[in-house]
Amino acid sequence: MSIRVLIVDDHAVVRQGLRIFLDMEPDFVIVGEAADGAAAVQLARQLRPDVVLMDLLLPVMDGVTATGHIRRELPDTEVIALTSVLENNSVFRAIQAGAIGYLLKDTEAPRLREAIKAAADGKVQLSPEAATVLLREVRTPSSSEHLTERETEVLQLLADGRSNKEIARQLQIAETTVKSHVKSIMQKLDVASRTQAALYAVRAGKVLSRRADFAT
Prior knowledge:
alpha/beta, 11 helices, Rossmann fold, Arc Repressor Mutant, subunit A, 2 domains
């Protein structure tokens, strides 16, 4: 099944370049383009894309604010921040708003392709630079000891880059149950996104290694 993508960037040449690249991929369908954050939110409501490629420096409404609106209203739509900005505050705010990925605009085409596919499957995707920023600065959650044994298992798999479907398959539970566990984990860790939960798990030492989904 094709992945429905919404492109958001205030530069027409960037949107055109992304469209040309993505149109070459049989797995992707470009459902729309937006040049500002407000238009992105409106189009997302109408088109309900699987993945939004979101620039952060946008007129009318910035990309972080637009990401927050989309994630709150359309939980099945994932957002990848695709930007030239790597300031700590921008990275933190985008992830807090619910972006599942943070990639720089100099990302190689194969990496972007895989990132879109992974995001559609619910997997965290970060550029090496963004991962370094987040892993260096993120605080270790103080309430992780209150997670149940099952929630800890889910968190470990989440931090290992697994999608809800993959977690459900491995733990032999329903995908809806996984979603319920992820929601509970986020509440207990006081985080706004599964990306933050995964990074907190890595920082807290709940996984043995940093998988390529975070660092490559």
